Structure formats: C-alpha cells, structure tokens
Amino acid sequence: MAVPKHRAERAGQAQASAPLGISEACRRVGITLRAIRHYESLGLVLPQRMGGARVYGAAELRTLELLQRFQALGFSLQECRIGLHGLGQPTSGPPTDPGTGLQAFVDSLQHRRDAIGSMLAELRVIRDAASAALAAGERC
C-alpha cells in the first residue's frame, strides 16, 4: 500500500529539518570542513553538540548559507558578523539590536557602493584620456 502523499511530504520535511552532522552540513551547503570550523572558532556559527559531535539544524545551515553569500560579495568576517546580527542570526559576542545591526550593515553596503562608484568614475576618466591619446596618435 502506498503512503499518502501528504504523509510522505511531511516525512521529507521532518528529514530535511533533522540536525545534520558536519560532513552532511558541508555537502548540503557546499562549504569545506575547514571553513565551517573556522567560522565556529570565530563564533560566527554555533552548532549544537550531540554526544560530542557537531550538529547543524536549520538555523545553523541558514547561517552558513548567509556566510557564503556575504563572503562571495567580498565582505570581511566582521561585516559578516554585523550582517548576521542584523538578520537575527545567533553568533557569539555581544548581542546587538537587530534593527541597529541591520542599519549598520546597510550603511556598510552603501559606503561600499559609493566607493565602487568613485572607482568607476576614475576608471572612465582614465579610459577617456587613453582613448583620446590613442586617437591623437600618442602613446598612453
């Protein structure tokens, strides 16, 4: 006899939310053991322990996914901590008000955007000067 669809779906959801060991968390998130251990040593991810082994639930997996995304965007680990606090993710260190932490994160992003805008403007000036020099037959 087949298992009713809704019961099978619930079983899959329960399995998906069951705590994972560190190796399975690595596989699921696409991160190395070394990276997870480094994040843990810095207090950026706080896995629970079961019988001495690290286990990662939905909150810890979300933290790891956010860390990956922040790192891919070029954020420092301190900026990652601010972002995690701002999004209400638990980390070690002094607690911050999520609203304040999130505003600090937004401010950091805006500062970075402004700096990138300045760099792009300077590169356009360099490009235009080089184009004009080449058009005039000069060396850049």
From TrEMBL:
Extract the InterPro entries matched here.
DNA-bd_dom_put_sf, MerR-type_HTH_dom, MerR_fam
Q: Where is the HTH merR-type domain?
A: 22-86
Keywords assigned: DNA-binding
User: Mind listing the GO molecular function terms for this protein?
Assistant: DNA binding; DNA-binding transcription factor activity
Domain of life, per the record?
Bacteria
Entry-linked Pfam families = MerR_1
What is the designated name of this protein? MerR family transcriptional regulator
